[in-house]
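ASSEMBLY PREDICTION REQUEST
Request ID: AP-0331
Submitted by: J.K., bench scientist
Number of chains: two
Total residues: 587
Priority: normal
Notes: Please return the full assembly, not individual chains.
Input sequences:
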Amino acid sequence: MALATSPPTDRKPARAGADAGDSAHDDAAGLGRVRASAFVVPALALVAVFLVFPALWTVYLGLTNFRLTGIAAAHPRVVGLDNYANALGDPDFRNALWLTLLYVLGSAVIGQSVLGFVVVWLMRDAPRAVRTTLETLVMLAWILPSSVVSFLWIAMLDRDAGTLNALLHTPGVAWLITHPLLSIIVFNTWRGTAFSMLLYSAALDGVPPTQLESARMAGASGWQQLRDVVFPHIRGHLLTNLLLISLWTFNDFAPYLITAGGPNGASETLPVFVYQTAISDGRLGFGSAISLLMLLINLVLAVGYLRLLRERRP
Amino acid sequence: MTAGQWLRRVGFYVLIVLIAAFLALPVLWLVFAPFDRTPTLATSLPSWTLHNFATLAQNPYALRSLGNSVLLAAATMVLVTGLGAVAAYALSRVRIPGRDGLLYGLLLLSSIVTGTAAMVPIFLLIFQLNLIDSQLGVVLVLSGGLLPAAIFIMKDFMDTTPRSYEESARVFGAGPLRILRDVVVPVVRPGIATCAVWTVVNVWGNFLTPFILLRSPEKSPAAVVLYTFYTEGGQPNLGLISAFSLLYSVPVVAMYLFVNRRYGFRFHGGIKR
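STATUS: Completed
Returned structure:
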């Protein structure tokens, strides 16, 4: 549900050296191992029951025909890999998978990442007031609760009174019905740019000014400075950022609040699909199978992220 | 200034204005509509009134749902910071076998098992525990999800605080629990505060978990009740929705400003749903 998001460079170096040598200085308060374990166990128990167990249980549930009501609710039967076979053969599932891919590519990898970088790059030598204003707006979009921002976008894209139609002089265009996927992609770009902005801003601080200066002296254009000086320095941050925002966008439930997956599944990303099939229709076994697939995709993204983190923290 | 430079300057500002407009436009409605006598979905300068807030006060669900949000956020915050702080302290100071693997596993888990990906098993678990439509169930699920990252944030913080205070207190004969209460807690307070704010912001905005685990509107937090206001059949009451949205948003904005002023928002710990 959440992730500690310090970029790797801001972390303190691991205290590996200190730990190895002087164990006498460990446990400064004289806690002792027994008491220390008693400190750790309650938190771990809660995590085990409400985070680890559900994840493992999904593996079993996905092999059953569990339903919320009816015969299968009282006596669920193990159906093996049927759920997975059904999922792969289900055009609705394949549609959801494809839409999710487009959603992640469009709103995170392209939208948030590019807009975040553009904001940081433009703000380098902008007046302080401009900089503060723009950064505040980006942060505001990020911190407002999702039910609030969802309605703000419903209002803005409304067919009759929406601000967008008024601005574009296109009265009567129902954006959420004619362009549902594009709508949620633009929405999520707006919503999540803050993280990329913060991360790239920290990354650019790490680019030595002298190198930029000498590139400028040598007559490099803005684009050449970016490619030859800036990019090599921030490549690690770029990858970290892309993995994290992809992970979050992949698990984003906000599209449900705006379009509820409609019309006709045209914006039904995987989280919305799971909700509709498992919770609304009560097909819990089938829903669990999809959940497991989602967990596996999360696992791939998260392992990639932690790998990066470790490489950069020797 | 040459013509080329001038053109670049103009282009620069046009781009900034466009981006600012894109970012600001959706929010304008939230600023103006709550004070408008006849709110529509269009963004316009209002004819000022506080009538919408009176409507809000009369709605049986609106204010109660804000109370529910406070309750859920406070309970989760106490559980997460309380259990998380002692666990983080023990992990930071005592070499428990397998500690590094445990921490790595926790970090991995918290990013993989999201509320969305695990919604089906979590729903079933709470169903089997007979905790559907109970706020306790929501608090437990949210705490389980937030604890790993909370332990991480606080352990990071505790690793950087010096042990010398604890050592000298020990020299003067203070017992471990007394050292914790009188020496450690005051020193690590900023880390605990950061974590508390982070937890509250997360719970305050969370929609999915209470949405699937709670049934009755009297128990639902503002996130869910606001959603039902605008998806219920019929004409949505825009005066009510706008005033409610604003009231519901103010606490997170206030907390953001507080954290930003106090600690600066430049990635020391990181705050994200």
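REVIEWER COMMENTS: Chain B has one domain: 54-263.
SIGN-OFF: pending second reviewer
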